[in-house]
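User: Please work through this fold.
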Amino acid sequence: MNICKAVGLRISNLLVEKNMTLYRLEQKSGILHGTMMCIINERNKNVTLRTVMQLARGFDMTLIEFLDDKLFLDENLEID
């Protein structure tokens, strides 16, 4: 899987785990709805470190906590 898909799946999993709405995440992270939908629906081909940091903050996590998931293991990711 590519990094963008992994980020989208991580968002979806954390929303369920933290019982959080997408709207609330958008508000807390400062990411616009259109951008968030592009990430989740994999229309965004490049997710920047800044965006991942905003997502982590939106979930009240550190960047390391956000990335600490099996989705981001080397053997699970394709680097284009």
About this structure: Helices lie at 3-17, 22-29, 33-40, 49-58, 63-67. Residues 3-74 form a domain with the 434 Repressor (Amino-terminal Domain) fold (CATH 1.10.260.40). The two ends are 10 Å apart (CA to CA). The first helix runs from residue 3 to 17.
